[in-house]
Design goal:
heterodimer, A: about 350 residues, mainly alpha, MetI-like fold, 15 helices, B: about 450 residues, alpha/beta, D-Maltodextrin-Binding Protein, domain 2
């Protein structure tokens, strides 16, 4: 783009005014080019987003202010009745609790395990590509298939896990009756699917870490663990933040795994594992067919996710600045210690 | 890219917004205004048209059968769209109905469970009333598809009159009479009651020392009992009954809950869950309510376990579970031709062909009397004369439960509580009933 701004100087011929005007126009053109084209190039995303994202978002807001059934359509303006009704439903608060707990139980171990796996895959191991592709296999399995398989594993009476527990004399776990057990089982399904994906993202970030940092650390006598905590982790910090944010957004919208956790897909008889998106679905497309309330839940979920995104942002920006400060002081210390050592050698 | 540090909060919000918006998008796909009016669209009788019929699972309509319609109606070609499960078909049906009916097949198969929706939005469907067809179906079957104003909205295909399927081998093992006629007698024959059924069950469970339960699931048993009430959850004008003061339902709930858990009669599984499916191979229970289509599920789930038989008896009189209809959405292009075709497809001759193909027990009086149905037996069920048994069971059905727009919502509240108590072992009968009442109140039905 910079090439376009430096138009070749035309030879000094012809009347001066005409020449000036021509130069002026092409210069203006190229200035527009510089100023406008970047926006033009990124505009398709925003245009498509406006159609498929922003419009439905606003329309959902409109629906949420009306009595609205799935098949019958609009049936009168009700103001914020849908929202107040939702706030009074214990099912809504239960669904928020479930969503949040499943999110915690899945995202935290997921990120930690993925980093560790990535660190292992980043070492010199045999058949690198095989292992690296291997971790991605669960990701390409359809979530519904994962649900079916885990349904057999986690069945309460005759499931594989409970049969095994029983065989070695341990009590069976009520995967569907016990609330916490159901969260853990669903989190396992989520982790099964997403660990490999996040591992590859971390692996890519780790490979971008300059090797001279490790070489310097080895000279300084840092062990593997020390290298991991003092070089690898700080260097991939931005990627960690990225993964945390995407898994937060994904985790708060979790739907497939809890829905396929039993054949009815409504979140359990006492709403043990009904997440907010499932609640939304059950309201709008379940027997109630109440789209107005479903739309209100969609908006409330939106607000929750925005709040989480903001918390994420402030926490991660705090971490990045404090890390940066610590990083410089460490460097200072490092330099001092190396000169000390040099002195000692001398 | 991977090492770049996102810097603006706005971006994060947009990302979050986009993902929620994706959810929201699904909501908007459902706004609509109804395009279909009840008027039937007539066309030139010789115009070449294609009719589509949408079914699910296995209705037994082979392409040969559908092609034979073209022989008598040369201008009509028939295509069938088959959904794998009734849930898939239902999702497809409701979504397209919500979009004003665009994309629906000319003739739609509708399970009895979705009929409340059809009856609620009767303007979106063609009136199929036809004097010449009076008496083709069992009265209660036709009544299930008749709107309050008398319009017939669906032609019946199959029905699910319930008998009792039982494990003959387990009955023998634990000292109960095992011959089908004796079993029918044991349960009370014509005057069989649920009390008697539970009482025999207590004997059986005691004889097996609690190793084998009496029936498969609390919800299946409750479903059979609730199907014998004329107005389980709603009055005939569609207004819901207050669950907290619904004495009939409360009595049923308490009965099933106590018998299932406290007396240990159920195998503590919820229908259709993996544990329930597995329980067929574990000798976990000895009897279950059994409409004709259930015999196929039993055979599949049993996977080698033999010893099933059917007793020509049902507690509390007759009962129906399941069955389907063909409806003609008003938004279709050829509603008149579709109505004629639906009438042909549900005629006794065609339903006989379908019965041979898929064992869906016909709802047509004539078809039931035909020897192809009446004399049929079921090999897996120890050669039980199913044709005769289900004809008797169908004739015994006297009550058609009223299922209004809120039937399934309220029913779910009660069965959830039942499952929480018996299958998941939570709380007491009282606390779970209160949970059901709370769930009902949260619906805000008034």
């Amino acid at each position: 783009m910079t090439a376009l701004t430096t138009a070749p100087t035309p030879p000094r011929v012809g009347p001066p005014e005409k020449r000036r005007r021509r130069v002026g126009f092409s210069q203006r053109l190229s200035r527009w080019d510089v100023k406008v084209s970047p926006y033009l190039y990124i505009s398709p995303f925003f245009i498509i987003f406006a159609i498929t994202g922003l419009f439905p978002l606003l329309y959902t807001g409109w629906v949420s202010l009306h009595k609205w059934t799935l098949i019958g359509g609009e049936a009168g303006y009700t103001g914020f009745d849908n929202f107040t009704a939702i706030f009074q439903q214990s099912e809504f608060w239960l669904s928020l609790r479930n969503t949040f707990m499943i999110f915690l139980l899945s995202s935290v171990p997921q990120v930690i395990i993925a980093i560790v796996l990535a660190a292992i895959l980043n070492q010199n191991i045999r058949a690198k590509t095989f292992w690296r592709m291997g971790v991605l296999i669960p990701y390409i399995v359809a979530p519904v298939a994962v649900g079916l398989i885990f349904g057999q594993l986690f069945a309460d009476q005759y499931g594989v896990i409970n049969t095994a527990l029983h065989a070695i004399g341990l009590p069976k776990i009520g995967w569907h009756s016990n609330t916490f057990a159901s969260w853990s089982a669903i989190a396992t399904m989520v982790n099964f699917r997403w660990i490999g994906y996040n591992t590859l993202i971390f692996l890519a970030a780790m490979q971008a870490v300059p090797t001279d940092l490790y070489e310097a650390a080895v000279i300084d006598g840092a062990g593997r663990m020390r290298q991991f905590f003092s070089i690898t982790l700080p260097q991939i910090r931005a990627t960690i933040i990225f993964v945390v944010i995407t898994s937060t957004i994904g985790g708060l919208q979790i739907f497939d795994e809890p829905r396929t956790f039993d054949v009815y897909g409504t979140g359990g008889p006492s709403h043990q594992w009904e997440t907010t998106t499932m609640y939304l679905w059950n309201l709008g497309w379940g027997p109630q067919q109440n789209l107005g309330r479903a739309a209100a839940v969609a908006w409330l979920l939106f607000v929750v996710i925005v709040i989480f995104a903001l918390i994420n942002y402030f926490v991660s920006s705090r971490i990045s600045t404090s890390e940066a400060r610590r990083g410089t002081s460490k460097q200072g210390r490092g330099r001092r210690s190396s000169t000390d050592r040099k002195g000692a050698v001398r | 890219m991977l090492t770049h540090r996102p810097s603006r909060p706005a971006r994060r919000i947009i990302v979050a917004g986009a993902s929620v918006a994706a959810l929201a998008l699904t909501l908007t796909a459902c706004s609509s205004d109804d395009g279909g009016s009840g008027s039937s669209k007539t066309q030139d009788a010789n115009e070449k048209i294609t009719l589509t019929v949408a079914t699910f699972n296995n209705f037994g309509y082979t392409q040969d059968l559908l092609d034979s319609y073209t022989k008598t109606h040369p201008n009509v070609t028939v295509k069938q769209e088959i959904a794998a499960t009734s849930d898939d078909a239902k999702a497809n049906f409701t979504t397209k109905l919500a979009a004003g009916g665009a994309g629906l097949a000319d003739v739609q198969a509708v399970d009895i469970d979705w009929m409340p929706t059809v009856l609620q939005y009767e303007d979106k469907f063609t009136d199929l009333s036809d004097k010449s067809l009076d008496g083709r179906w069992l009265d209660w079957k036709a009544k299930q598809a008749t709107a309050p104003d008398g319009k017939l909205l669906g032609y019946g295909t199959d029905i699910g009159p319930e008998a009792i399927c039982y494990r003959q081998d387990l009955f023998e093992k634990y000292g109960l009479p095992s011959d089908p006629d004796k079993v029918a007698e044991l349960l009370g024959g014509k005057d069989a009651t649920w009390d008697k059924y539970f009482q025999v069950g207590e004997q059986f469970v005691a004889a097996s020392k609690g190793k084998v339960a009496w029936y498969d699931s609390p919800d299946g048993t409750y479903q059979a009992m609730v199907g014998q009430l004329a107005n389980p959850y709603e009055n005939s004008d569609g207004t819901p009954k207050d669950l907290s003061s619904n004495a009939d339902i409360k009595a049923l709930f308490e009965k099933v809950a106590t018998e299932s858990k406290d007396k240990g009669l159920s195998a503590h599984n919820q229908e259709w869950q993996p544990d329930w499916t597995a329980s067929f191979q574990k000798d976990a229970f000895a009897t279950m309510a059994c409409p004709p289509w259930m015999t196929a599920s039993i055979e599949t789930n049993s996977g080698g376990v033999k010893g099933w038989n059917i007793a020509n008896v049902f507690p509390g009189g007759g009962g129906n579970w399941g069955g389907s209809f063909l409806v003609v959405p008003a938004a279709g292009k050829h509603t008149a031709a579709a109505k004629e075709f639906a009438a042909w497809l549900t005629a006794p001759e065609q339903q006989l062909a379908a019965y041979k193909q898929a064992n869906n027990y016909p709802s047509q009086v004539e078809a039931q009397k035909d020897s192809a149905v009446a004399d049929s037996t079921n090999k897996f069920m120890n050669n039980a004369p199913v044709g005769k048994i289900f004809a008797d069971r169908a004739a015994a059905v006297t009550v058609t439960p009223f299922k209004g727009p809120n039937y399934f919502t309220i029913n779910k509240a009660v069965t959830d509580a039942l499952v929480a108590y018996d299958v998941q072992g939570k709380g007491s009968v009282e606390s779970n009933w209160n949970a059901a009442v709370d769930a009902y109140k949260a619906l805000g039905l008034g």
